[in-house]
Amino acid sequence: MSDVAEGRSRRSRGGGGAARRAERSAVSFETAKYIERNIPNLEVLDDEALSIIEYNAETILEEIGVNFPENPGALALWKEAGADIQGDRVRIPRGLARELCKTAPSKFIQHARNPERSVEIGGKNLVLAPVYGPPFVRDAGGRRYATMEDFNKFVKLGYMSKWLHHSGGTVCEPTDVPVNKRHLDMLLAHMTLSDKPFMGSVTEPSRAQDSVEMCEILFGKEFVQNNTVMTSLININSPLTFDSIMMGALEVYAKNNQACIISPFIVGGAMAPVTVAGTLTQVAAETLAGVAYSQLVRKGAPVIMGAFVTSIDMNSGAPTFGTPEAALITYGTGQLARRMNLPYRSAGSFCGSKLPDAQAAYETANSLNMGLMAGVNFMLHSCGWLEGGLVADFEKFVMDADQLGALHGLAKGVDMTENGQAMDAIREVGPGGHYLGCAHTQANFKTAFWRTELLDYKPFETWDEEGGRDTRQLASIRVEKMLSDYQQPMLDPEIEQKLRAYVKAKKDSMPDSFAS
């Protein structure tokens, strides 16, 4: 731990008698460490195919180019780097973007205010974060516009979810708070209701700056300037357009050493070609340009190569999820990210269903397992996603969060230690016996198998006597239980007071606006 980190750790746990009393009375909920894979990634492209895609991507950058509209500062940086600028169009000579990308780190630590919950993004690691961006929520009462109260509940559920490593960002869009002020309330919720890592605001560059300044209060200014405490989502306007709002937020974060996910938003057949290879080529071109630009802003700025990928239903025009085409693109993009030596973001609990039903389960399971096998390092939307991302669902949040435990178990791989080989057990039991009472089983039964905290494995008679509840009903009960058990993690009262004063001053400085 660095001297700065030690100072922050001591300070965050200090704060006088009130802080120490709060710490003694706080309840700490177990959070599993981020996943460290001991299984191989699934690779669907050979070296020749990857080389063709990379060559074609650089052809796009050189011959077609990308647009940086309403951003003269970006155009000036690109021109100085050697790109050809015509209007808003930036044409990047072959090899330039890839060379610029080399200064981006292959992995980085995102620090949480509780150092035990910091995460390392990159390498063989997988960090799981919840749903991001839905304007609607669904609970036992039905579908409705999200409120700040809903947002706070999701942050609490995320804090208490064992298999979730990250608090996320806009877990739902609180429509009862003015657009120009809601980012302040959302950040305050992540900072005070949870002690896991979180994401910053990207809806306007000044809001990104607010995010940095609030982090400087929470962590200390010197710590923030020397360490990464936020990972934020920067979407590319596919095809091949880098809008000034998102790029403005990226510029703020990169200058302040905070991480950005550079992520094309791909709906195959609408924002990218209908073929897998064509989409992979466009994804490669867009991420090359985006990552390279982050390094023009600040060499060494932490960045994640992203890909949000779905296909389209050619009858209705609606996005589809859990499809084989999306899986192939996700696997292929993982290979491209590893060749660029960059952390990779993709996948999630994707589904197009209106309810947490069988369709949601099938599509979500396909999408989650795809992400694990593709080598994803940061999985946004890992729980709570419904209706193509329009809805954050409370019941599905806990269903998905429970299933994330299965990903942890699969990622461990096969234990080939002496205990894993279990020869003593086989010798002890011999032919015709059983293993229930043997010494090896008694020593390992608590940790041998992943155990759900939600699904029902009782005999029919017991299940029937208890009301014959389906998974959705069990999930609703679990939501209420988790929220009733929630206790706020300790935070230095002086820091919390400064955060609330900052939010109040910012809100008071501007009139309410419900426009973007």
Helix content: 40-55%
**First-last Cα distance:** 41 Å
DSSP E strands, number: 18
Going by helix content, strand content and strand pairing, the class is: alpha/beta
- Residue-averaged pLDDT, rounded? 93
Q: Number of helical segments?
A: 20
Low-confidence sequence ranges: 1-16, 21-26
- Give a quick account of the main beta sheet: strands, pairing sense, barrel closure: 6 strands, mixed
Any idea what the shape is?
A: globular
| Portion in strands | 5-15%
Radius of gyration, Cα only, in angstroms?
24 Å
What does this structure look like?
- The chain is an alpha/beta fold.
- It has helices at about 5-10, 15-25, 45-65, 70-80, 95-100, 150-160, 180-195, 205-220, 220-225, 245-255, 275-295, 325-340, 360-375, 395-410, 420, 425-430, 440-445, 460-465, 470-485, 495-510, and strands at about 35, 65, 85, 90, 105-110, 120, 125-130, 135-140, 140-145, 230-235, 260-265, 305, 310, 320, 345, 380, 385, 390-395.
- Strands 10, 11, 12, 13, 14 and 15 form a six-stranded mixed sheet that branches. The chain has a four-stranded mixed sheet with strand order 9-8-18-17. A three-stranded mixed sheet has the order 1-7-16, covered by helices on one side.
- The chain contains 20 helices and 18 strands.
Features of this protein?
18 strands; six-stranded mixed β-sheet; disordered N terminus; 13% strand
How are the SSEs ordered, and which strands pair?
Elements: H1 3-12, H2 16-25, E1 35-36, H3 47-64, E2 66-67, H4 72-81, E3 84-86, E4 89-91, H5 96-101, E5 107-110, E6 119-122, E7 125-128, E8 136-139, E9 142-145, H6 148-160, H7 179-193, H8 205-219, H9 221-226, E10 231-236, H10 244-255, E11 259-267, H11 276-297, E12 303-306, E13 308-312, E14 319-320, H12 324-339, E15 344-345, H13 358-374, E16 378-379, E17 385-386, E18 391-393, H14 394-411, H15 418-421, H16 423-429, H17 439-444, H18 460-465, H19 471-485, H20 493-508
Helix pairs in contact: 3-11, 6-7, 7-8, 7-20, 8-10, 11-12, 12-13, 13-14, 14-19
